[in-house]
Amino acid sequence: MNRIIMNSKVSSDGTLRLLLPLGPAEADHEVRIIVESVAGEEVSSKEEWEAWVDAISGSWQGDFERPPQADYEQRAALS
User: Fold this and answer.
1) pLDDT digits (tens, 9 = 90+) for 33-47
2) What's the half-sphere exposure (Cβ side, CA atoms, 13 Å) at 71?
3) Could you read off the pLDDT of 41-76 as tens digits, one per residue?
4) pLDDT tens for each residue of 1-16
5) Cβ atoms of residues 16 and 35 within 8 Å
6) CB 12 within 8 A of CB 2
7) Cα–Cα dist 56/27, whole Å
8) Non-local CB neighbours of 4 within 8 Å, separated by 6+ positions
């Protein structure tokens, strides 16, 4: 059996639900499930936040485009 890494989110009631279709060839095999919390890069201080903003400043490569906008919906008057 190949190793499968899957990210999932615990629901608001604290339950983690997994559905992994492994296929008929893997039927009746034992599996091991390891649960690890995925820690994101959290900024813990204002100084770290400002340093992160400074680090990404000017990193955009390319042009900004605004696609054509749709017309406003015509509605009936309320009165």
Assistant:
1) 888 877 765 656 888
2) 3
3) 565 688 888 888 888 888 888 888 888 998 888 889
4) 677 888 888 888 988 8
5) yes
6) no
7) 48
8) 20
